[in-house]
User: What shape does this take?
Amino acid sequence: MRIELSIPIRTERFLGRLGVPISEKDPETIFAVCTDSRRIMPGDLYIPLRGENDDGHRYLADARSAGASLLLSEQEFNGALRVKSTREALHTLAAVSLDEYRPLIVGITGSAGKTTAKEYISAVLATRYQVHRTAENENNEIGLPKTILSRPADCEVLVTEFGTNHPGEIAAHTALCRPDIAVITLIGRAHLGAFGSREAIFTEKSAILAGSPPPRALLNADDDLLAAISLPGAVGVALNTPADLTAENIRVSGDCVRFRAYGKEFCEEITLRGSGKERIYAALFAIGAGQMLGVSSADTVRTLGEVPPPKNRQQIITSGSYTLINDAYNASPEAMRAALELLSSLAGKRRRVAVLGDMLELGDGSEALHEEAGRTAATCADRLFAFGKMAHAYAAGAILAGMRKEAIAVFEGAGSCLEAVRDSLIPQDVILVKSSHAAGGWRIAEELAAFLSERDGPQRSDRQDRISR
Assistant: This one.
């Protein structure tokens, strides 16, 4: 990572926040920060980070040779400034940057739906403001400072994702960003292994609401834990219960979702590109954020209809008579159920093929949760291809729910599963690919898309939006 700062930072302010004295040798101003020694330019600040597979401290000499004018280190190194934690130093740099110029900040967290909500909210707000948003999945303790530091100088609204996989991470994100508007999409069972219960996940996610005064909040009122929050000015969105913003007359087809959105001073027919009822929540969050910040109803309706579905998230690819649902970016029990229900609703009378990989980080209850997903698959799919360490649990659940053993195939790896799926396909099939990202389902989805394209030719076009990343 190398970022040229659109808002340069005085070295004295940065080092003062770190409690590190400045010397005559240090540059007066930081114009760029880099965490990759291979991308260092003369005059850069180099912050070495420790990762699972490598340690940036190994390359301090390389960074110095490449011309870095300021080096930080957690260990003794000639010419480097010693700090307790280089990750904390990166956070501090982002915090000082926000002190220099702070745009309005929207923070989004939740067990599922964060990225879709981010895309819709960013698009709606961009009709009135200069918007910068979290790129891809840069929502962790490194990605969030990167998002802040990479914002352009004219940024008026910063839309950020807050991810977490251990207790305290959302509180740290919140302390750094101090969001003006906070969105919580859902309290599900993602990362259950790290937290132990939905209640603990709720405690973690709701830390985004901390602050004095608290941020304006947009909450999923269909979620039992979020519905219990009492916060002045909070806006609830729902599909199944009364709320401040609701959706009625929902119609889902292969290429779009239509519904009528109701709220205070808002009653409009909405059409969303892509399929899947779950994206309606994201649209309602965007409507709410737009109302909070003065976006017109007409601009909101028009813009929501233009946003393309995020890649690998309920992405519908039609190739000849085949339909592929690529939902392999990530997986939780709630997202798995939603994906299987989408498969069933889109297929109609066509054959439904579910290709499912492991849902990761679910802890001691992982096997039971995979069996639960297998039971759902039995009612939503005609064929089940399961791969990974939990493939047997998917199969066991499906058999218990009445799926024939002959309709189920189990594989250790994604490669052998892909081969079997390709060999089994027949015209008119509707295929869902769903797994956690690290389980490799996205590779199956990409290979299947290429295979079907060669066989029948694609009937899909992707459009790019104009919001800065």
